Amino acid sequence: MPSIDARLPLTCPTSHELLHIGLTASAEPTGTADSPGQPPADSGPGDAQDGSSGSRSASELASRLNWLRAGVLGANDGIVSVAGLVIGVAAAAPTNTGAIVAAGVAGILAGAVSMAAGEYVSVSTQSDTEKALVARQRAELAHDPEAGIDELASHYRAKGLSPATAMTVALELTAHDAVGAHLDAELGLREDDYTNPWHAALSSAVAFTIGSLLPMLAIILIPVSVQIPVTFFSVLIGLGITGAVSAHLGDAPVRPAVLRVVIGGALAMAVTWGIGHLIGVSV
């Protein structure tokens, strides 16, 4: 049996008591506990701050990578969507520049708004879920703080810590920030780091618009005699770049990612070109 029972109180103190008495338990099997009135070692607060700083840095880095990856994918969607649209119209009416421009502009506006609305709804749902989880965790700890300590200790025991060390960690983290400790350990969340739906919506709309400019400018600026094949290959190059960047951000193999987006984009443009060509011939 671990020797923790000989060193800790029979009932777990509340978070309020921990903050006042600075109770700590030694993780060494043969050690002794500090006296109730003795404050924790000087390294405790520093360690907590360092851990918080590390957690915040990791969270911020992950958030930036997610936004960047979403931006790359949004640009990819813009390239494919508008390329298929303008190539289809150009196949039906190759000399009707006005119709090609109108179709491209309409596709850019509709796609950007659609992407922004979709991201806003999706991320708003995610943010609401995160806030609900935080509120639930806070209510549970307010109702039964002792159970919260036991739950936190159980989590760290499952991670491989000894019962004594797990209880020590749970007590000290609870004294520092009970809600934050549970959110980080059990849900991987931070209370002050909710996902912003407006940022997601704006990022998606801008990325889609930037990506769509490649096929739009290519189909307009290139002579009619070669506008479709040149636009086709320009789009494939753009898709290859976005696929490579996306794979790099996700630390995934580059070649399969590039092949997927290039083949998918080529099929989309081929289908729209075929439909536009048939419509143009029938007219």
Describe, in short, the structure shown.
This protein has 283 residues and is an all-alpha fold. The protein has helices spanning 15-21, 43-92, 97-143, 145-158, 163-187, 197-221, 227-249, 254-282.
Radius of gyration: 29 Å
What's the count of strands? 0
- Biggest β-sheet description: none
DSSP summary: helix tally: 8
- Structural class per helix/strand content? mainly alpha
Organism: Actinomyces slackii
Keywords: Membrane, Transmembrane, Transmembrane helix
Membrane topology: Multi-pass membrane protein
Protein name: VIT family
Write up this protein.
With 283 residues, the chain is an all-alpha fold. The protein has a domain at 66-111 and 202-282. Helix content is 78%, strand content 0%. The protein has helices at 15-21, 43-92, 97-143, 145-158, 163-187, 197-221, 227-249, 254-282. α2 runs antiparallel to α3 (97-143), α3 packs antiparallel against α5 and α7 (227-249) packs antiparallel against α8. The protein is elongated, with a radius of gyration of 29 Å.
Could you give the topology of this structure?
Elements (H helix, E strand, L loop, with lengths): L14 H7 L21 H50 L4 H47 L1 H14 L4 H25 L9 H25 L5 H23 L4 H29 L1
Helix pairs in contact: 1-5, 2-3, 2-6, 2-7, 2-8, 3-4, 3-5, 3-6, 4-5, 6-7, 7-8
Main attributes?
mainly alpha; 78% helix; elongated; disordered N terminus
